[in-house]
Amino acid sequence: MITEDGLKSGDKIPSERKLSERLNVGRSSVREALRALELLGLIETKQGEGTYIRDFRENHLVKLVSTFVLQDEKAKQDVSDTKYFIEMDCLRLLLRNQEVDFQDLKLELEDGKLNDDDFFYLIIKKTENHLLLKIWLILKDYYQSISYEKKKFTKIDFYNLLNAMEANNEEETLSAYRKLRKMSDSPIIVTDNF
Length: 194
Description:
Strand content: under 5%
Number of helices: 10
Radius of gyration: 22 Å
Order of helices and strands: HHHEEHHHHHHH
């Protein structure tokens, strides 16, 4: 409904009665859902005025959910690994498309405006795979909420990665990626044998 109606933060949402009619559910279900959304900080009820959408960017939903989901070290490692696999697969996808231009990334790097998240956001966006981008954004938020240390990256690491991609060399690209991520330089081999 938020998307369909073009609602944004600060906009008033319909009353319980109208929501109940529009969604074809009972008012008690609507009331329960609104209570849950308010607890998550996604909406705000002002007595006598109505219910309003809150600014999602200020929301700490990922951190809240991560306290329940990511309680053990294995789950945390899984988030990190999955984020890295998506990044590597996006690099591979871009290597298949030889018409991809990386000049914009190089200019951003020269200006010193790119951090690691910005860099990979632009890389993944270049794949034009919206599902991968959405999954990566969620994983990135989880990763940030569980990451204890903020890693520093040098421009050289990013340039090496871009240069390998421009040369359309998969082995060098993945090697540069693993160096950036401080991973073992042993390639990850996927087989069909289980």
